[in-house]
């Protein structure tokens, strides 16, 4: 009987190790694809790929996080194509994905910053004061959790830059905040291979704007 139990536990342990190895392999493959993704379809495919990992009884928070992140990226890709109506589905769906586990992750700065970004995207697309307020609340929460987190800094810059002047926004101040975020990105090191490590390219893009670009944008 003891030999049977030992054999069973060995098989079970081997199955767990194998599943963990497959999970990490798939995660790293998806994260690699995210680095070269540019189109709506790219991000849609990644959304479903991460969602399948999240739906396999996985206890990790990263798969559901990246599922929602690709919803956001999908929305941003639609905006670049001039399809603002289609873009709204991204943040709405992203927030639905995060909703079931939000309470458990409110001490996770990465999770909280992403919640803020999704609400900020909704605010920009709908001119929604409610979502803008929620994004600001999540920003305050994220900065309290970790004032040096680069994605919290990026959210701060995004809110300032993409909010109209009559609502407290400022493109000039936003550029300076992107520069501050960029400094944080340059000194940031993720704890694991699958932890969030994105956003630097956004900060670099806006931080590169000079006075002539700002003049054109504010005309």
List keywords for this structure.
single chain, mainly alpha, 74% helix, globular, 0% strand
Descriptive report:
This protein is mainly alpha-helical and 219 residues long. It is built from 11 helices and no strands. Helix 3 packs antiparallel against helix 5 (89-98).
Outline of the structure:
This protein is mostly helical. Helices cover 74% and strands 0% of the residues. α2 (40-54) runs antiparallel to α3 (62-80).
Order of helices and strands: HHHHHHHHHHH
Say how many strands there are: 0
Could you give a short account of the major beta sheet?
Answer: none
**pLDDT < 50 runs, ≥5 residues:** 7-19
Give the amount of beta strand, in percent. under 5%
Please bin the fraction of helical residues: over 70%
Please specify the SSE layout and strand pairing.
Elements: H1 2-34, H2 40-54, H3 62-80, H4 84-87, H5 89-98, H6 109-126, H7 129-145, H8 150-162, H9 171-187, H10 200-207, H11 211-217
């Amino acid at each position: 009987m003891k030999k049977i139990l030992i054999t069973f536990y060995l098989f079970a342990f081997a199955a767990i190790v194998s599943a963990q190895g497959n999970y990490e392999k798939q995660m790293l493959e998806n994260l690699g694809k995210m680095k070269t993704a540019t189109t709506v379809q790219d991000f849609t495919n990644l959304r479903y790929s991460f969602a399948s990992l999240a739906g396999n009884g996985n206890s990790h928070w990263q798969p559901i996080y990246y599922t929602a992140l690709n919803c956001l990226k999908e929305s941003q890709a639609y905006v670049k194509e001039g399809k603002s109506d289609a873009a709204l589905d991204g943040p709405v769906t992203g927030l639905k994905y995060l909703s079931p586990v939000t309470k458990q992750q409110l001490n996770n700065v990465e999770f909280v910053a992403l919640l803020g970004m999704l609400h900020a995207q909704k605010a920009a697309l709908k001119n929604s004061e409610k979502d803008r307020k929620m994004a600001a609340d999540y920003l305050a929460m994220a900065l309290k959790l970790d004032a040096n987190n680069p994605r919290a800094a990026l959210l701060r810059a995004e809110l300032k830059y993409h909010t109209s002047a009559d609502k407290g926004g400022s493109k000039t101040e936003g550029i300076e905040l992107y520069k501050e975020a960029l400094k944080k990105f340059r000194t940031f090191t993720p704890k694991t291979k699958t932890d969030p490590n994105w956003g630097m390219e956004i900060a670099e893009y806006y931080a590169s704007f000079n006075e002539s670009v700002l003049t054109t944008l504010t005309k």
